[in-house]
Amino acid sequence: MGRSRKLKQGLASLRVARRFVPELRAERRRILLVAGLSLLGVALDLLRPWPIQWVVDHVLVPGSATPASPKAVIVGGALAMAVILSVRAIAQYAHDVGLGQAELQLTRQLRYKLFSHLSALSPGFHARNKSGDLLVRLMGDVPLVSAMLVTSLLELGTRALLILSIVVVMVVVDPILAGATFLVTPIVLLLVHSISNRIHVAVRKQRTKEGDLADYLHEAISATETIQSVGGSNEVIRRFARNNRRSARAGLKAKKLAAKLSASVESLLGFGIAIVFALGSLRVLERELSTGELLVFLSYVRMLAKPVRSASKHTAKIAKGTACGERLLSIIDEVPEVGDGEQAEPAPSRPSVLEFHGVSYSYDGEEAALNSFSSVFRRGELSALVGRSGAGKSTLASLAARLMDPSQGHITLDGQPLGDLSLESVRGSVGLCLQKTILFGESIRENLLLGTPEATDEEVMEALRLAGAASFVERMPDGLETELGSSGVGFSGGELSRLSLARTLLRDAGVLIVDEPFAGLDREAASHLSATLRELAREKIVVVIAHDFENMEPYDHVVFLERGRNLGEGRHEELARRVPMYRDVVRAACG
Fold first, then answer.
1. How far is 35 from 299, CA to CA, in rounded Å?
2. Does 8 map to a domain?
3. Which of 77, 462, 470, 557 holds its CA 20 to 30 A away from the CA of 96?
4. Can you say how many angstroms the Cα of residue 94 is from the centroid of all Cα atoms in its chain?
């Protein structure tokens, strides 16, 4: 059972590495160049001890036979050593630069691939996964995977070649000393294999804990104002300390295992060098080996210790990279819930009818947010979706924009099912302005151009005017170049809401769905926005998710939802007259 588990863990690194081969191919020229420089380095490392042997055996040992003058031998040996070391240094510099470039480029590619895939995944996926953990995978796990794929695997290959070359030369120089050196090899290999598997498990736990900590930090920092207002700062700090402690413990365990591996390998290699030194000295005394050859052999043993020591460190890095790679693949293997069909057609740019046909939807098997909902929204009508909190209004809006697809039923634009239309064209035809305002810490212009980067300044200002935001933007010293704080800090809720609406209006979509657009607005701003929506409804399908039951008269078409069901639709007066629950909700809202 234990062997089976170790075999699976050993194959895991290969499986993870194979999944990222397409990204490695893009850097194959640079990687091949680095590999060539590594081979040159191996050859130079093998040559490095021989000038010493030449000088020792032909000049420094008493009674040695000198083929030329002693000074010439010494100068020749020194020059040879200088050339070998200089070329080795230049090759190592080029190797390190190329390796760093390849690793950074691979990191960039993997981050782009992961972020692009995350952007395509549904809101349901992001609701199930903590944003802090996803951030750790994107910023922390990706570099570790790149280091494994480029640096560690290439270095291990080079070290393996160097070890093999050294072993061959050692056997040629003295088979007996070579056999003594290899006594500790099986123990080293067994130790590396055993501890690296434990490092793999420990690192996986460590990255999970770091993800939890990052997510808690993200939530706590985003909610600083709320935390301070309820006097919860000390409690939040206490909880952070607890999560921080758990993350540190997990990280310490991984570091202890890595240190244990390094120390164990060092000890075993030191033991092996001591055996070789003692046995080699005896063979020199018995004149079975020259002094220079012993020095060469000891140099090779020390050289052998270096790649073995390096291999043990890279083995730990591979264990970390494998654990991180599995975390990345768990995201990459996530199939987007929404996509294009084989023969997706473009959606109508100016649809006349948006219709829901028996639409049901539930989040992860929970109670249905929508239950056999049917209704029709037409161009030329100002429509409203109303209902108590949790009735399913926002779910309907998300389904109309194909942020997700219905569990049952279907939605059509001018009679064409959304599933038969290309995803890009559907989202281009449906403009959705959510109640939760999301703005980035960039300029007003950059925020508004998010969905329409080709829009002109005149179009941007017209969208701001329609949303009732032009006046306060023009009053700012930098106008459209005004930088927003993180998530729009520094602006009122009403101002942020209007900027968000202007961003949606700038897209000029044929269907406009606005979630609670009047929240945080004064009477004058609300009146202006109401007139704007009425004007837009003449040439667009406009649906307002409304919560203000005191002002339902302006709407031509009101749909009343309760627990995901359509309990009635029509004008406000009709619903109040013939739907008792609607009448009760209106009375409760109006006091």
1. 24
2. no
3. 77
4. 30
Q: Which of 208, 213, 212, 215 is nearest to 132 (CA)?
A: 215
Asked if residue 184 and residue 259 are part of one domain, the reply reads yes
- If asked whether residues 410 and 327 sit together in one domain, one would say no
Which of the pair, 235 or 280, is modelled with greater confidence? 280
| Contact by Cβ (8 Å): 247, 213 | yes
Residue 384, beta-bridge partner list: 544, 558
pTM value surpassing 0.85: no
pLDDT at 391 over 80: yes
Q: Are 361 and 370 in contact (CB under 8 A)?
A: yes
Domain count, the chain: 2
Give the pLDDT confidence score for residue 260 in this predicted structure: 77
CA distances from 67 to 43, 55, 70 (A): 26, 11, 9
- Spatial distance between the Cα atoms of 243 and 332, rounded to a whole number of angstroms: 27
- Strand, coil or helix: what is 383? strand
- Asked if residue 46 lies in contact with residue 169, where contact means CB atoms within 8 angstroms, the answer is yes
What is the maximal distance between C-alpha atoms in the chain?
Answer: 122
Spatial separation of the C-alpha atoms in residues 314 and 317, rounded to whole Å: 5
Q: Are residues 378 and 302 located together in one domain of the fold?
A: no
Whether residue 458 is contained in a domain is answered as yes
Regarding whether 261 and 149 lie in a shared domain, the answer is yes
* Pair 439, 496: CB distance under 8 Å: yes
Contact yes or no for 56/70 (Cβ under 8 A): no
Query: Taking a C-beta distance cutoff of 8 angstroms, is the pair 316, 324 a contact?
Result: no
CATH number at residue 127: 1.20.1560.10
Q: Is residue 1 part of a domain?
A: no
Token pair listed for 47: 């040559």
> Burial of 472 by CB count in 10 Å (0-12 exposed, 13-18 middle, 19+ buried)?
middle
Chain segment 89-147, per-residue pLDDT in tens: 898 899 888 888 888 888 888 988 888 888 888 777 877 777 778 888 888 888 888 88
Residue range of the domain that includes 286:
17-332
